[in-house]
Amino acid sequence: MSSETSRARKVYIRGKEAEPGVYRAQDEVTLLRASLEGDVEAWGEIIARYKDAVFGLCLGFLRNRADAEDLTHDAFVRAYVNLRRYRLDKRFSTWLFTIASNLCRNRLRYRRYHPVISPPDQMEGGGDPGRAVAKEERIARIRETLDRLPQGYRAPLVLRYYNDLSYKEIAEVLSLQEGTVKTRIHRGKLMLKDELEKHGVTQA
Amino acid sequence: MKARLAKGLVVVLAIGLTVAAGGIAQSDTDRVRSALGSLAVKTQDEILSAFQIGFSQGRLAPSEAYHLIDRLAAADGDAAEKEAILLTIAHALQDDLPVSLLVEKAEEGLARRVSLSMILNGSAGQPRILGLKQREFLLGAVRDLLFSKGIFSVPEGGQGEPAALPVLRFDHVVNAISDFLADYIEAGKSPLEGSAMMDELSHRLNNLCALQTPVIPQEDLQLVLDRVGPGDLTTIALKLVEQP
Amino acid sequence: MRVDDLDRTIRETLQHEVAAESYCLEGLEDRIATEVAGRLPRRGLFDRLRGLLAPTRGARAGQLAVIGATAAVFLFVGWFIADRTSLLSPGGPGPALAAAAGADQVLFVMPAPGAHSVAVVGSFNDWEPTPLSDKNNDGIWRAQLSLPPGRYEYAFVVDGRWWGQDPLADEYVRSFGEYNSVRYVGQVGGGA
User: pTM of the predicted model, to two decimals?
Assistant: First the structure.
């Protein structure tokens, strides 16, 4: 890829200024229509907008960076190739997340998985060192518990607390009833809470 | 060639038997579908798929479904209201709630020849009448209350945890508390009298427990009485009476 | 730990994890562009069928014909069997009211001298009338129903008029502005 084209692609990254040129704050539908015509750069723009969200979903579901990276890649390839199946009346993000979710489910089924997440970077920022350690401790506990949660409970939690989906959207992505989604989230949170309290990590 | 044919026939029979097994359920669904068709509802697919969920969970029997639909079809009234009644039940099923109380009330209303609007929306006058919409709200509110108290439902074969009940047992608890609250409100009693509500609820649950085949087993009764308090009931009852 | 604190902590944790690992997404757009270059999104059913039905694939066409024929046969068989058995099978799973073991005989009694028809409607019969009878013409109408233990709401209908307050009831409740009677069937220690 020439540097010209890759610069043009990075035109509308969340939060950055749009450069004059190829795609200026493009309407998502326009980008999707262009992608359908084979415009790979338009699809690149879609990827830029959604890759963190899809990666976060995969990482949350699979608990493994390498797998999450693979499946994020696969999800975008599959979504592109199947773009004709996407009906523009539904939310694109829901459709994309469903593809990613299904890929994750298959991966969990057919490959033994190791909850290997590389150790976190040192926490940024100063302030009270005691406070920073408590926060790390909480995060570490939650991560451990998430690793051990059954996928049925973990998936709705990730979609709710990372992807910020509504119960209805979560139900669509996971093919569950809304009421079941609520149950799973409640119980998942109870399990997390239990773990935190067990280890005396409750201070906010 | 003959071997291939024979193998083919075995496959046919095997698949045919599978289709037949599905076919038994299929004819119930067809019956419900054709009953819905005679009502000419726009949201037929949504209602049917929600009802099918209910059938598979044991929350709704196909015979109950087409009995209600046929009765609605024969009743006087607006087609849109008939549809709304079925949709309320469908939405409750989609929300993973038990629907037997809703179906019963609808049947009673039709038997009494009450207006469809009354069945659906009730009336805010004196005495207060609750419609299906308010009852659906109650079911959801009671379910959410139980969850917040750590009392959950698990599907068949699911692993039990303390305070996790099999779905149909959980449903009995949700129904008992919702039905009690509905009766209490319709009796015109005050939603602010939390202790009185608790006493009457206890009484009702005890009656359901003290049967040869208890509708609610003792341990479930105890669970509810341990964790649910007068304030909880008042909260739900107040929200209910504030509904439009 | 308060609920909103927990929510915040979960969110924090997930965001933290992504932030730590998302370096691997650098250049993802380019990698995917390379992979899908020259591939248009799938055109759909027609093009794939055209591929299937191309004349060179004679053997495949023969296979399709056999599959189609057997499909037709087993569909017919399935439908045929289903049609027979649907008459025999009960109405699926569900809270069907069965006169099975564990059901109690419940007596419904309504004094209504001069009445032409008396029935009971309730939650045990979908609120459809079950007739009572007055065989000896003494004005007391009776019916005995077999009901599993539980709580039931009901009322009597006398010549089309609803009577909701049965003296033999355990409780009364309001319903649609009128009264219904309530009985608990199968109470331990008597009463039905």
Answer: 0.57
